[in-house]
Specification:
about 20% strand; alpha/beta; TIM Barrel; 3-stranded antiparallel sheet; binds 3-methyl-2-oxobutanoic acid; about 525 residues; binds zinc ion; globular; Double Stranded RNA Binding Domain
Length: about 525
């Protein structure tokens, strides 16, 4: 089988972030964009600038900072959308403007209320307009897999004639079967004049659990770009998972015959960073990045693994960068040992970061006998704060059990000295939250809270992720500690710091317009 190169178009920050519970602040997006760069994605779709001021800012900041991948921005076939996307991309080393319009009869009639001819005309005008900003224009025929094939060919022909260099044929609602999806690519390639000069792209959703299978089928039928997201996050059931496509290509190279530029050892780190930032972890049995993806429980499997890892493992954990520790860290370990371990895990810490993580490490080591890699990663993510830490929790004391739960909280903040308050609640966490809200005088509502125990054992570090509504705005926060009440209070303080940061940014903002909705 001939080996071909396939471009990886990552849309974690656009299609992925659009899904409920996955929203990220512009700072968090920038952090993830840096990691996607390290992962080696070819095209990084940074957002949809017309959707919100935050998206506009993210695209702009990512375009200015991330230099290796092509940075893409999405726009509907509307003049103002294209203008905003073009402006947001200004400053990119390599930019792509991605315009889309629905082409299925159902979408044109019910959603757009446009005729076929009108959609054809908008396609032409929009690709032409997008070309004023960049030579690299991608056109997507939304709901392509449910579009009449003859009309699809006419729309693609129009986009190619106007200079779109990439044509994306999405399975927007995850409806296609692999043989049908592959057939559509073959059809377009055979029937559209000029289709051999452009890159055809696959974009699949997972409503029937076929997003990866469909993407691989499209590659076999000639697609040279696949659009995917880390951990498969995205609208509804999600998008095709980047890590599954990449590892299928690596492990089954002979059967699939494609190559891509992804540095697979960065996969786990990218997956973890995304999970920490959104607070949404992949299900334990998720292929490649799930907690159990490399765990062997059954005795017969363990016996086989001890004889030869290949018996039950088709991917070695190291191939996707899953850390394996040999060095035991505890309270007698020094800064050098910690720095070395982080380097082994792939993180080069600055002096300031190391100092800070070390301080937290020693305090954790006082409470926990053995510090595992997972603990270290939790500490690291904790101390990579995306918003300045203006609010700090300096003291927490809770009384609970047979008495009604009360908490005493002390905090430092943008005021002189420290403030203390007491709160009560149904439980110790609620009591701590009441005290924090009392200190800040802000409207707080905790929408969801989840706890993850990172390591086994009674002294495990607990990580709390929460979504809170702060003065009407939804924000996520996370916090780690061996004490879950403290971890919860830290998570709330993290969300409050983000809210304060967002307030400050908004009051000095560029006053962009919100244009969401067709
Ligand atoms: O699923 C889809 O059709 C999309 C397009 C906007 C590319 O996300
Ligand atoms: Zn999509």
């Amino acid at each position: 089988m001939v080996t071909s190169d396939v471009l990886i178009f990552d849309t974690t920050l656009r299609d992925g972030e659009q899904a409920p519970g996955n929203s990220l602040s512009p700072e968090e997006k920038l952090r993830l964009a840096r990691q996607l760069d390290a992962l080696g994605v070819d095209i990084l779709e940074a957002g949809f600038p017309a959707a919100s001021e935050g998206d506009y800012r993210s695209v702009h900041e990512i375009a200015a900072e991330v230099r290796r991948p092509v940075v893409a921005a999405l726009a509907r076939c509307h003049e103002r959308d294209i203008e905003l996307a073009g402006e947001a991309l200004n400053g990119a080393a390599r930019s792509r403007l991605h315009v889309f319009i629905s082409t299925s009869d159902l979408h044109m009639r019910e959603k757009l209320r446009l005729t076929r001819d009108e959609v054809l005309e908008l396609t032409r005008q929009s690709v032409r307009r997008a070309r004023r900003y960049t030579d690299d224009v991608e056109f997507s025929a939304e709901d392509a897999s449910r579009t009449d094939p003859d009309f699809l060919c006419r729309v693609v022909e129009a986009a190619v004639a106007e200079g779109a260099g990439t044509i994306n044929l999405p399975d927007t609602v995850g409806y296609a079967m692999p043989h049908e999806y592959a057939g559509m690519f073959r059809d377009v390639r055979a029937r559209v004049p000029g289709a051999d000069r452009v890159i055809l792209s696959a974009h699949c959703h997972d409503d029937l659990g076929l997003a990866v299978a469909n993407s691989l089928a499209a590659i076999e039928a000639g697609a040279r770009q696949v659009e995917c997201t880390v951990n498969g996050i995205g609208e509804r059931a999600g998008n095709a998972a980047l890590e599954e496509i990449v590892m299928a290509g690596q492990v089954r190279g002979a059967a699939l015959g494609f190559r891509c530029n992804i540095e697979s050892r960065e996969i786990y780190r990218t997956s973890q960073l995304l999970s920490y930032l959104t607070g949404v972890f992949p299900q334990p049995n998720k292929a490649v990045v799930g907690k159990n993806a490399f765990a062997h429980e059954a005795g017969i499997h363990q016996h086989g693994m001890l004889q030869n890892g290949l018996t039950y493992e088709i991917i070695r954990p190291e191939m996707v960068g899953i850390p394996r520790s040999t060095l035991v860290l505890g309270k007698h370990s020094g800064r050098h040992a910690l720095e070395r371990r982080f380097r082994e895990l792939g993180y080069d810490l600055s002096e300031a970061q190391l100092l800070r993580v070390y301080a937290e490490f020693t305090s954790l080591a006082d409470r926990k006998r053995e510090i595992l890699d997972e603990d270290l990663l939790a500490l690291l993510h904790e101390s990579f704060h995306d918003a300045p830490e203006e609010y700090q929790l300096t003291h927490l004391r809770v009384v609970c059990g047979s008495v009604s739960p009360t908490a005493e909280v002390r905090m430092a903040g943008p005021w002189s000295g420290e403030r203390t308050a007491r709160g009560t609640g149904d439980g110790p966490i609620a009591a701590a939250f009441t005290a924090i809200s009392e200190i800040l005088g802000r409207q707080l509502e905790v929408l969801s809270l989840s706890l993850r125990s990172l390591t086994p054992g009674r002294d495990s570090v607990g990580q709390v992720f929460l979504q809170a509504k702060i003065d009407g705005r939804s924000l996520s926060g996370h916090g780690a500690s061996t004490d879950i009440v403290e971890a919860s209070a830290r998570a709330l303080v993290h969300a409050l710091n983000k809210a304060l940061h967002a307030d400050r940014l908004e009051s000095s903002s560029l006053n962009a317009v919100y244009l969401w909705g067709v």
